[in-house]
């Protein structure tokens, strides 16, 4: 935390170094990852989430001496983070995926000029929001709760309902804990949770899928086949790995395709510039992903891949490489081949 870290090293009154301030900074920083995950679920943007957490840390640091300890430090930080997110969400347009906005496009549809960044749900690196070690069941729930489809479903909820559902169903807070955080009643929290569940059920986009598991040998093999087929631009090999009803989306463009046949047709037509691409593995939103570089080594897209039943079911390509590649630690140009096992396994 740059701001609080600097404050922690500032001299105290009388000129003595504030060595004792290092402990509060460390205590606050210990919660950064989980707070980033919470704010990302609330806001749908990795960049807004990081800004919200930074603001949370700054507010917490400035108020730390007045923290009385009647609630846990974690609860206090979540209260601050919730207020920051609710402020950011006032009057804002809900973020979405292309498939949330319109029916599938045809291969011949014009790609359009693209919508502003604030219109879209964006990807986030796993390492920013998921603990490197912990209970396997909790880790599986955490992975599923940053899945792009679930983040999209959350955006359908009113902000306070969103906070209630995340705190109750993702983070397993009790109704009384959530009521205290929101300055509300248990009855109000339970009512908000009931309405939130009904909205998600009606949307059909909740966390209905089985929680994502660490990649097994079969899934690793599928990803290797996908990388090989895509890099060789082998349509027969891609046919074998893509699900018949797979989808392709490309924010910031609203155009999206459904169906293996249309995706392959698009790759052989408007998407022909993908030929010769190189894929560098990352982990995004609890799933396998790739930094896609064109044949000339220039960044083209951040891919997030969904799989089911031994096939690739979604290719979600985010084209804002200027911001996304640094976020995911990807180099500005392709620097040579790399394997997929270490980065895509978890």
Question: Could you explain how this protein is built, in words?
Answer:
The protein is of the alpha+beta class and 346 residues long. The protein folds into three domains: 2-89, Rna Polymerase Sigma Factor, Chain: A (Orthogonal Bundle); 98-203, Winged helix-like DNA-binding domain superfamily/Winged helix DNA-binding domain (Arc Repressor Mutant, subunit A); 217-344, Nuclear Transport Factor 2, Chain: A. Helix content is 48%, strand content 12%. It has 17 helices and six strands. Strands 2-1-6-5-4-3 form a six-stranded mixed β-sheet. Strand 1 (242-249) and strand 2 form a beta hairpin.
Give the secondary structure arrangement, pairings included:
Elements: H1 2-8, H2 22-29, H3 32-43, H4 46-63, H5 73-89, H6 98-101, H7 126-129, H8 136-144, H9 148-154, H10 159-170, H11 175-182, H12 186-203, H13 217-232, H14 235-241, E1 242-249, E2 256-258, H15 260-268, E3 278-284, E4 287-293, E5 299-308, E6 311-318, H16 321-327, H17 341-344
Parallel strand pairs: 1-6
Antiparallel strand pairs: 1-2, 3-4, 4-5, 5-6
Helix pairs in contact: 3-4, 3-5, 4-5, 10-12, 11-12, 13-14
């Amino acid at each position: 935390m740059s701001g609080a870290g600097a404050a922690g090293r500032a001299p105290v009154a009388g000129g003595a170094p504030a060595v004792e301030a290092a402990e509060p900074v460390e205590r606050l920083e210990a919660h950064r990852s989980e707070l980033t995950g919470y704010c990302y679920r609330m806001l749908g943007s990795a960049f807004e989430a990081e800004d919200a957490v930074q603001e949370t840390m700054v507010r917490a640091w400035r108020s730390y001496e007045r923290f009385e300890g009647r609630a846990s430090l974690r609860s206090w930080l979540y209260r601050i983070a919730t207020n920051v997110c609710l402020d950011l969400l006032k009057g804002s347009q809900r973020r979405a995926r292309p498939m949330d906005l319109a029916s599938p496009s045809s291969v011949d549809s014009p790609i359009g000029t693209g919508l502003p960044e604030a219109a879209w749900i964006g990807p986030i690196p796993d390492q920013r929001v998921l603990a490197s070690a912990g209970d396997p069941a909790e880790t599986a729930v955490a992975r599923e709760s940053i899945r792009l489809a679930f983040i999209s479903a959350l955006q359908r909820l009113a902000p306070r309902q969103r906070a209630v559902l995340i705190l109750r169903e993702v983070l397993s807070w009790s109704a009384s804990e959530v009521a205290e955080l929101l300055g509300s009643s248990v009855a109000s929290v339970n009512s908000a949770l009931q309405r939130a569940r009904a909205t998600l059920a009606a949307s059909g986009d909740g966390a209905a899928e089985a929680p994502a598991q660490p990649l097994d040998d079969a899934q690793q093999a599928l990803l290797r086949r996908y990388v090989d087929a895509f890099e060789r631009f082998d349509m027969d090999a891609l046919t074998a790995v893509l699900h018949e009803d797979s989808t392709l989306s490309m924010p910031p463009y609203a155009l999206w395709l459904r169906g293996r046949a249309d995706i392959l047709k698009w790759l052989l037509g408007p998407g022909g510039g993908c030929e010769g691409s190189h894929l560098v593995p990352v982990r995004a939103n609890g799933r396998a992903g790739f930094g896609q570089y064109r044949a000339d080594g220039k960044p083209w897209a951040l891919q997030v891949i969904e799989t089911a039943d031994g096939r690739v079911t979604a290719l979600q390509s985010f084209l804002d490489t200027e911001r996304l590649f640094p976020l995911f630690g990807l180099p500005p140009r392709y620097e040579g081949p790399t394997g997929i096992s270490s980065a895509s396994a978890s």
